[in-house]
Structures are given as C-alpha cells and as structure tokens.
C-alpha cells in the first residue's frame, strides 16, 4: 500500500521541496481526516500543518514510507493530545461536563493508539492479505475505487457493470476490511472511508 516511491523518499531525505510538496499533497488530507476524529475540523487542519512544519524543521531520518507514516501520525497524535489537554484545562472552569468527558475519551483513545512503524507495516500486510482473499471482481472494483480513487460511475464504465453493482462490491469489500483491520480503524478511516 505504498503511496510514495523510494525515489521520492530519497528526495525527501535530501530536503527537496518538490518531494515535500508531493508528500504534503498525499498525506495532508489523510492526516486531517484522522485528526478531525478527535478535534474540531478547523483545529485539525492547523494541527496537521504544524506536523508538516515539524517534519521540515526537525528533518528526521526517514528510510521508507512506514517510517514516514509513523512519524507523521505520531506527531499529529501528540499535537491532538496537547490540544485536548489544553481544552481540558481551559474548560476545567466551565460547567460543561459533557464536553470535558468527551475530551477525556478522545485523549484516552489517542494515548492508546499505536502509530509505530511496526503498526503501519502490519496494516500494509493485513491490507495485502485481505485484498488477496476478496473475490476477483470485488477486489478489482475495490482497487479501482479506493486505491486508484475512481468514482463509482467511472469504475462501472471501465468494468462494464452497473453503478449499483460497483456499490454492492465496495460494500462487500468494506465489510471484510472492517473485520480484518478492526484494531487499526482510527488510522485507516481515511483509507476505507465511511466505515
């Protein structure tokens, strides 16, 4: 499930701005989607932008995409935790117990979330295994839709099937992925969309 080529990873380590822009355009929406599960959308965008600034300023040693994903998701996770802790303190004097409780739940969930490189390698392995187990037509539809980003009508046209058939195959695949990747759902919400 690698998105970036080894060449782009190499250019990132050489601090090439063009490679950074490619990484940003691919990972920014995914990281915002992840962060907005825990913090308000507008704050999520700022948190993710801060993560990319941190990446550029600290220039971590990145050898592969799993390390890159681990680094970015960990920074975003930690930034979300700091945001939630700040909100907890800020709201500590207010009587909105429900908001404080929700922030505590989000904080607890984030603290337990594994964003290590090994977690991303395990995700890739499970995705490949799960894809291989899907029936051929279901796998083909899912790859075109979710991995190549084609719209349902484009997939239907390409495979000469109805849009309803495409929707049914995607639904079938999502059910299988939901079970196979249940331990990683917070990190994969952007991938499977609308679990």
UniProtKB/TrEMBL annotation:
Top-rank taxon, per record: Bacteria
One Pfam family named in its UniProt record: Sigma70_r4_2
Keyword tags: Sigma factor, Transcription, Transcription regulation
BP GO terms, sorted: DNA-templated transcription initiation
Domain RNA polymerase sigma factor 70 region 4 type: 126-175
CDD domains cross-referenced by the UniProt entry: Sigma70_r4
Domain RNA polymerase sigma-70 region residue range list: 23-88
Family matches, as SUPFAM superfamilies: Sigma2 domain of RNA polymerase sigma factors (SSF88946), Sigma3 and sigma4 domains of RNA polymerase sigma factors (SSF88659)
InterPro entries found in the cross-reference section: RNA_pol_sigma-70-like (IPR039425), RNA_pol_sigma-70_dom (IPR014284), RNA_pol_sigma70_bacteroid (IPR014327), RNA_pol_sigma70_r2 (IPR007627), RNA_pol_sigma70_r4_t2 (IPR013249), RNA_pol_sigma_r2 (IPR013325), RNA_pol_sigma_r3/r4-like (IPR013324), WH-like_DNA-bd_sf (IPR036388)
Protein family: Belongs to the sigma-70 factor family. ECF subfamily.
Name recorded for this polypeptide: RNA polymerase sigma-70 factor
Originating organism: Mariniphaga sediminis
